[in-house]
Every structure is written in C-alpha cells, then in structure tokens.
Design a protein that fits this description.
Strand order of the largest sheet: 4-5-12-11-7-10-9-8
Strand content: 15-25%
Largest sheet: 8 strands, mixed
CATH architecture of the largest domain: 3-Layer(aba) Sandwich
Distance between the termini: 32 Å
Helix content: 40-55%
Number of domains: 2
Number of strands: 12
C-alpha cells in the first residue's frame, strides 16, 4: 500500500506508486464527471428558480388591483378569489422551494470541489518545446543482428561467453512517436536505446538522452553546465527544479548533486533547448513521488518524439502510445542467446 499526501489530505491506496497513481487517476476522472454533473444540475435548478421567480412576479402583477378599473367588479372579484384560493402563495412557494434546491445543489458542487483537493496537483509539469522535423521519419534502424549484453545478464547460470545479440526488424521512428521499450533485465533495452541514439546523432538530430545511471563525472558535468549559464537562464533552470520538487539552494551549494537531483537538473537544462526527441532510460530511477508525477506530466505535454525504457509498465503506459517488446530468444539446447524486438 502507498500513502499519498496532497494539500494536507492523507489517502492510503493499495499497491505501489504506479498502481496508486492509476487509482488516483480513475478517482479523479470519476470525481470530475460527478462534479460536471453537479454543475449541470445546479445550473438547471438556478434557471428553473429564475423562471419561477419571474412567473411569480408576473402573477403578483396580475393579482394587483392597481391596474384594474375601479368600476370593474368582475375583475376585482377574480383577483379576490385567486387570493383566497391561495394561487398567489403557490407560485411564491414554488419559487422559494426551487431556490432552496438550487442552493443545496451549489453546496454539493462546492463539497465536490473540496474533495478534489485530495488529488495530487499537476502543477509540476515542465514545458519542453520540440523543434520541428522535416519529413515523415526522424530516423530508422535497419533490420539486423546487433551485439548486446552477455548471457550472464539474462541467465546467471549460463557460463557461456558467446556474444548475446539483439535481433530486430526494421524500425521506423516518426517525429511524434511515443514508444515504450519493455522487456526483462539484460535483454537489450538499453542497447536498443543506445543504437537509436547513435542513429539520431549521426543524422544531426537534436536529442536529449538520459542514461539509466549517471557516473560521478557525469553528475558533476551536469552541475557544471548550470554554472556556465547566464543569470537569466540559471534562474529559469532553478525555478524548474523547484517545480520538480527539489531545493534549488541545495543544488547550488554542492558540486556533487544526488542522482535524483542530477536527473531533474538535466531535464531542466533540456527545457532551455527544443530537442526533437527525448530518449529516457529508466527515467524514474532515484526520483521521489512528486518528481515522478512532474516527469509524467512533462512527458505528456511534450510534442516531439519520445522513447522510454522503463520497468514500470504503468508509468510507461501513461506517457506512450505504442510498445516495443524485447523477448529472450531460445537457441539450441534451450540456451538463451538472443533477443527479438516485436512492435505493437
């Protein structure tokens, strides 16, 4: 189970973070649907109350003797009869009742608005523009067999040192594709992402690439890039880091940011450019819950090409629209010796 804190409210949801976020999303959708229904009902009752109030006003005028000729006894008699029979009061009571019902509907709608405060805010999204790409494809990888990890990365009991290969069909990537790369550990997901990165780099594409793990020197280089910015750009990056849930003062006070802070900093630096593609290898590594939510919102707003390697299928499913599945291929004797990419 996962404990969610939002705007002072505490909500316990079953499962891990991704399952809890899915539950939160379903609850939010249902809450918004109910809220819209309450708004429509309140508007309907307000209109009906207004209509009945206007009808009451017209009835009051009709039952007034001010406009009746003082010698018209028949008209005055009808007015007196209407007053005695209570017709004037029925119209007033109906309008008053409808106004009360409209007020109750308004209270229900406001209560639903307060209840929605228990959901986690989407304000952490960072805007990353995508530079336009000419043509239908941003890159393509030809069908073939490519070297990947070693067999021990997939099956520790296999002592063979034969090359572990990644067998793929022709892969075409379009400028607005949103692709999740999934598969078991060691099957070649990072190898495929690195292969695509090389193709994009060779084609002169402007990309942002986030490795699964950053080395100590890479962490420092990310921090040094922040120091190299002018005051305006540095201020913008620090503001983005704040929205991603990190303390900008802590980032500025150290030359060795934590892996999570370095990832947020790298994403903030990418926002200064307009990369044509984002290649992210396990992007949720080292991120806390606010950082994961901010990352998800950022990726959903990004309009360029997105490739995500993630063990978290629910997260990947929320930010992508198609999946490349890498499975381990069985060779002679049942030995695992390769991977095959299937696209869906």
């Amino acid at each position: 189970r996962t404990l969610f804190l939002a705007n002072g409210a505490v909500v316990m949801r079953p499962g891990g973070v991704s399952h809890g976020l899915n539950e939160e999303h379903r609850e939010r959708v249902e809450q918004e649907r109910t809220h819209r229904q309450a708004e429509r009902e309140e508007r309907r009752l307000r209109r009906e109350a207004q209509r009945r109030t206007e009808a009451e006003s017209r009835s009051t005028k009709r039952l007034s003797k001010r406009t009746v000729d003082r010698h018209d006894k028949d008209a005055k008699g009808k007015i007196d009869l209407a007053r005695i029979s209570g017709k004037d009061r029925r119209g007033s009571d109906a309008a008053r009742e409808m106004r009360a019902r409209a007020d109750e509907a308004g209270e229900r709608r406001r209560a639903l608005s307060l209840a929605s405060a228990t959901f986690i805010s989407n304000d952490g999204a960072v805007s990353i523009d995508a530079c336009a790409v000419r043509g239908d494809l941003i890159t393509a990888v030809e069908a073939g067999v490519y070297p990947a990890g070693e067999p021990s990365a997939v099956q520790s009991s296999d002592t063979s040192r034969k090359a572990f290969t990644l067998e793929i069909p022709r892969l075409e990537i379009r400028p607005t594709d949103r692709i999740a790369v999934c598969g078991p550990n060691g099957a070649g997901k990072s190898t495929l992402l690195e292969l695509i990165r090389h193709r994009l780099h060779s084609a002169g594409r402007d990309i942002f690439y986030m490795r699964q793990e950053l080395s100590t020197s890479e962490l420092r280089r990310v921090r040094e890039r922040l120091d190299a910015l002018d005051n305006t750009e540095r201020g913008r990056v620090l503001a983005i880091i704040t929205r991603l849930g990190s303390n900008p003062e802590r980032v500025m006070d150290t030359s060795d940011p934590s892996p999570g802070e370095a990832r947020k900093l790298a994403l903030a630096l990418a926002s200064l450019r307009s990369p044509q593609a984002l290649l992210l290898d396990e992007p949720t590594n080292h991120l806390d819950l606010p950082g994961i939510i901010a990352l998800e919102n950022t990726l959903n707003e990004y309009g360029g090409c997105l490739l995500v390697v993630s063990h978290d299928r629910q997260f990947a499913g929320r930010v992508t629209s198609q999946t490349w599945q890498i499975g381990v291929r069985e060779c002679d004797g049942g030995r695992r010796c390769g991977s095959v990419v299937t696209c869906s």
